[in-house]
Design goal:
Layout: H1 17-22, H2 27-34, E1 39-42, E2 45-52, E3 60-68, E4 74-81, E5 91-97, E6 108-111, E7 117-125, E8 132-139, E9 159-165, E10 176-177, H3 179-182, E11 190-192, E12 195-196, E13 198-199, E14 209-215, E15 222-228, E16 236-237, E17 248-256, E18 262-269, E19 274-280, E20 291-297, E21 304-308, E22 318-324, E23 331-338, E24 347-363, E25 369-375, E26 380-386, H4 388-392, E27 395-396
Parallel strand pairs: 7-12
Antiparallel strand pairs: 1-2, 2-26, 3-4, 4-5, 5-6, 7-8, 8-9, 9-10, 11-14, 13-14, 14-15, 15-16, 17-18, 18-19, 19-20, 21-22, 22-23, 23-24, 24-25, 24-27, 25-26
Length: about 400
Amino acid sequence: MRLHQHRIRRGHGRPGAGFLARTGGGLLVAALLLAPAPADTANGLSISDVFIGQQEGFAVYRIPALVTTQRGTLLAFAEGREGMGDQSQNQIVLKRSTDRGASWLPLQLVAADGASSLNNPQALVMGRTGRVLLMYQRYPPGRREHNVVPGLTGTNVCTSWITQSDDDGVSWSAPRDLTVQLKRATATSLASGPGIGIELRRGPHAGRLIMPFNEGPAGKWRVFAAFSDDGGATWKSGDPAPNAGPGHGNEVQMAELDDGAVLLNARNQDGAKLRKVATSRDGGATWSPLADDPHLQEPVCQASLLRHPNTGAASNAVLLFCNPASQRGRTNGVVRLSRDAGRTWPVSRVIYPGSFAYSCMAPLPDGSVALLFERDNCSRIAFCRFTPAWLAGGTEQP
């Protein structure tokens, strides 16, 4: 797999700011392009665009992932696509912010592989070293989720990769193929997240790295955890969560609970328009059966799940959940809060009332929360930041 860093593709829309800055002229134009994007407001929040289709070298940007490094740098990942299709010669792109999202550095190209499509960015920041891990999948040219075949190698096979950064996302290692470690013999597709992975901090599996996954065949998806107990050097796949149906768990995120258990929250494909949830008591190796959560409606879409790290005592964890809170379509982006390990979500507030699709949350050092989300029919990926006080001003059910 080829890796290209700090190069901006051209051929879709105008050249990116990084390209203009490297040419002999156009420095004034480059400076203008690097200025903070004009902000909208929604429900008291300032919302600005990070990735905009037809700009900076790509026709479409989709599938946001967001993490905060140990130095406080925000890393916003996405798929840069040639079209709206899920496999459209996608490349993994990145923007960095060192001022809590007020401005963003030029677009970086983290991973590319010619006419192949790279999908499902999922990032994790390691607590001990600060290393940033990024997983994604590769689809060969002309292949889609519905026509790849079981196997670990070959021209019709979906494979899974990892890259890492030790300098806050400025540079990235050559990608490493994890397919043999992660893929079962019966699986066709693999999909990390998309979103974030977690590092367990409690219980007998403290220090374990977990990356949420789903696997095909299409129409028979299953969700599971990939985990590492040696700092990401090697990985194993846990058992899929049992599922009696109707519906299948699909795009998935996970969060650690107070006692070291792990909560799974997944898109419900072909079932009720309610999120599917399960719990693991052994660090993601096995799961309770998937069940529909009556408190979390969805239109069939990815969602974001986050354990807030700055909410006081370890026994008083706060979980945050964000998705398009509608069963009619991808609209009405809402963030919710749970104080009881996700059993109920009594606090909620609208982030963006219009077109809202995939999202990803990340904690900031000051206790606020950063959010990256697709809006306006996926024509752009936007950023906002909210505080616990802002969220507390939302609707609280008794």
